[in-house]
Amino acid sequence: MIGGFLKFGFVAALGIGLQLGSVGGVVAQTPTPSSDLRTTGGYSSSFRIGGAVGRPTTFTLKDLQALPPTSANVYYSTGKGPVSAKYTGVLLWDLLNQVGIKTDASIKNDILRRFIVVTATDGYAVYISAGELSPMFGGHQVLVAYAQDDQLLGTDSGFSRLVFPGDKAGGRYVSWIKAIQVH
Ligand SMILES: Nc1nc2c(c(=O)[nH]1)N[C@H]1C(S)=C(S)[C@@H](COP(=O)(O)O)O[C@H]1N2
Ligand SMILES: [Mo]
Fold first, then answer.
1. What's the CATH superfamily of 2-182?
2. Of 59, 74, 81, 182, most Cβ neighbours within 10 A?
């Protein structure tokens, strides 16, 4: 994040203002209009599912543990090297069914126009298409995990994190989940 601001400052200093791009080999990152989300971060002990859902709900560890568990053995690369782990949690699709994604029956396959934004306490965010999750379509077993190798997740992940079995890099393994918004 600091790197992003430094790069942004570097580009601005070159006098090209908000025009971002590659300058002398330095690729600028798009600055966040409001930086409040990015300055916080840290542990989360609950998250809220809201947006286009029938019953917006807040989930804690207990709520997740009360649902049928699913485990996945995964392998992914990170900036700190590869990770090999068994994660346990609930299917994101099951959680979304609990709150009920709203769809418009008059629109053909409306579910395929829907997407889910998972946001973390540090402002990190990942978009997922509903079609990727739906068992009728992609059926990807994306987990909201609360345990790694049979231990509850610790402060470095918050109480829950996303798990994308099959992903090659860890970028979509959102830690410190704070909100899951359906659009
Ligand atoms: N909230 C949040 N989650 C995040 C990130 C982040 O910056 N913030 N980084 C992602 C990236 S880029 C990687 S590679 C993995 C690292 O996973 P690890 O914690 O298992 O090493 O976390 C992902 N989850
Ligand atoms: Mo990463």
1. Oxidoreductase, molybdopterin-binding domain (3.90.420.10)
2. 59
